[in-house]
Specification:
CATH class of the largest domain: Alpha Beta
Number of domains: 2
Strand content: 15-25%
Number of strands: 15
Helix content: 25-40%
Shape: elongated
Order of helices and strands: EEEHEHHHEEEEEEHEHEEEHHEHHHH
Number of helices: 12
CATH topology of the largest domain: Rossmann fold
Largest sheet: 6 strands, mixed
CATH superfamily of the largest domain: HUPs
CATH architecture of the largest domain: 3-Layer(aba) Sandwich
Structural class: alpha/beta
Distance between the termini: 29 Å
Length: 410
Amino acid sequence: MLKLFNSMGKRMEEFVPVNPNPVNIFTCGPSVYQRPHIGNFRTFLFEDVLVRYLEYSGYRVRRGMNITDIEDKAIAQAGKEKAGLEEIADRNTRLFLEEMDALGAKRPDVLPRATRSVEEAVRIIERLLDLGIAYRHKGDIFFDPLRFPGFGRLYGLDMSRWPRKKVRYRRDTYPGMRWNLGDFILWHKWRGGNEEFWETRLGKGRPSWNVQDPSMINPHFHETLSIYCGGVDNLIRHHDYIIAVLESLRPYPVAKYWLHCRHLLVAGKKMSKSRGNIVYTEKLLRRGYSAAEVRFFLIDNHYRKEIDYSDESMTAAAARLAELRTAVGLVADRSGSEPLDPEAADRVRQAFSRSMDDDLDVRSAVDGVLGAMLAAPPEQIDPSEAGGMVQAAAEIDSVLKVIFSAAGEK
C-alpha cells in the first residue's frame, strides 16, 4: 500500500484516491519569464515519477500543470530584453517542453496558460467580490484572508500573529520564505505605460499570480484533486492562497493530499534565478552527461530531502547509474528462451515497491533493485530466473526511465 507524506496535517497517510479512474493530479508548472533550470526540473521529475509510479501500480492518471506566463517578473523581463511578453513566454515554454521530453518526463494531459485563462480569473474575482471576501482598493482588488475560515491551515499559520491594522500586499511574489501577514492581491489595475493589460468587466488590468492557478484549475477539474504537488517554497503563501480562493467558491476541498519537493542546492544555497547560481540541462549535456544521467541525478533521492549539485555529485550519479545498468545487463546475459520465473520477477518487483510505497523513496528503491540483481553471482542464476528478473526490471524502468534506454526515448 502506497503511503505519502501529506503536507496537509504533516503526517504519513495511506494513499486512497478521491477517484481511482482517473486519479486527478495538479502540479505547479514553470514561470516562463526565463527558461527552467535543473532545480526546477528536480520538482518536475519528482512529479513525473509520482505519475509513472501510480500508473505502474495500476491507476489511470490525469495530470494538469499550469504555465505562468504573466506576472511581475515576466513584465520586468520583457522590459529587460526589450521583447514582447508573448515572445518570451512562447520561447521559454517551448524550451521547457523540449527539455521535459529530453529528460523522459510525460507531458501533462492539461497544460493551461495564465494568459489564456483571464476570463476565468475575472469570473472568480467577480464572485469573490459578490461574497464580500474580495474588495477594491485604489483600482486593485484584494482578498481578505480573515473572511476565509481556516486560512493558512496547510502551512500551519499562527493567525494570532495577524496584524490588527489593515495591511495589503500588491506584488505577485515576494522574496524569501516568509509570510505576508495581510491581504493579498487578486487584480492589478493598469497604471499606464507598456505594461500588459486586458479590457475586462473589472476594468483595465491583469490577474495576479494568486488567482491564476485557480483560474487554470477550475475549468478542467470538477472534484477534489487526489494530489496537488509543488516545490516546498509554495508552502509559504502560494498554496494557502489557492486553497482560500477556490474553497471560497466550491463546496469541497482543493486536494486530498499535498506533496512538496525540497530544493536543489548549489554549495548549500538554493538554486535560483535571483541568485545567479543556476545550471541548465543543456550545460550538463554539453559537458558529456547523457539525458538519462541528468534524470537519474535528479530523481535518485527522496523528494523531501535537499540535494546538493556539484561536479562530484553528478559524477557519482553517473557511476551509480552505470552500476545499475551493468547489474541488470549481467542478469540479462543469463536469460534465455525458457519460461520466465514469476517468483524471481516478484522478488525484484517487491524490492522496488517496498521503498516506493514508503513515500516514493527512489534511492532506497534503486538500492533494492541493485540488491536483488546482485544477490547471487550471475553464473549461478538460472535462465528462467534471469528472464523473470529482467522482465521486472523493464517494468520498473517504466517509472525510472533510465535503465534500458535514453531518458527521452518514447
